[in-house]
Design goal:
The structure is a homodimer of 100-residue chains.
Chain A lengths: L1 E9 L4 H11 L6 E9 L2 E11 L2 H7 L3 H10 L3 E17 L5
Chain lengths: 100, 100
Amino acid sequence: MYGLIGKMTAHPGKRDELIAILSEGIRDMPGCQIYIVATDPSDPDAIWITEVWQTKEHHQASLQLPAVRDAITRGRPLIAGMGPYTETIPVAGHGVRRAG
Amino acid sequence: MYGLIGKMTAHPGKRDELIAILSEGIRDMPGCQIYIVATDPSDPDAIWITEVWQTKEHHQASLQLPAVRDAITRGRPLIAGMGPYTETIPVAGHGVRRAG
């Protein structure tokens, strides 16, 4: 198992546009078990992402998927900054249905 | 939707014992949609937790469940520190099956 927990900061006023692009890009990614996109009540420009993948290789391969490449291309100009960003090893838990 | 993303630091050598206690405590929590417990390759004492709840009230109510109260009682002596810790609003994503 391979995980990522990270914060992304959008340019002012661009957060929801960036979330919409991310949400399209994450459909149908092989090996992706959980992908949660969340906003932050304490920071109107922040987006928190938590990902759980079968393996690190599945995550790396996802970056070559046409939908993901397209999301990166369209989303990048809206991003003011990345981080903190942590690689994790998911070891326990449950995820029972769509998160949103 | 209500979410939490947080880091917990165990006393040296106590991380896996703390994870085992957490993993028992989180079974059968009403309104809990996703609960991911992960370790951190860069910090042998760290535990990262990502939670998705139907509402903040479901999360608050969970703290009174006997299994959760028991986990808190047994886990607290193993915890060296909490944080960073962020409340979130999950807005998109997918979670398809058990995370571990």
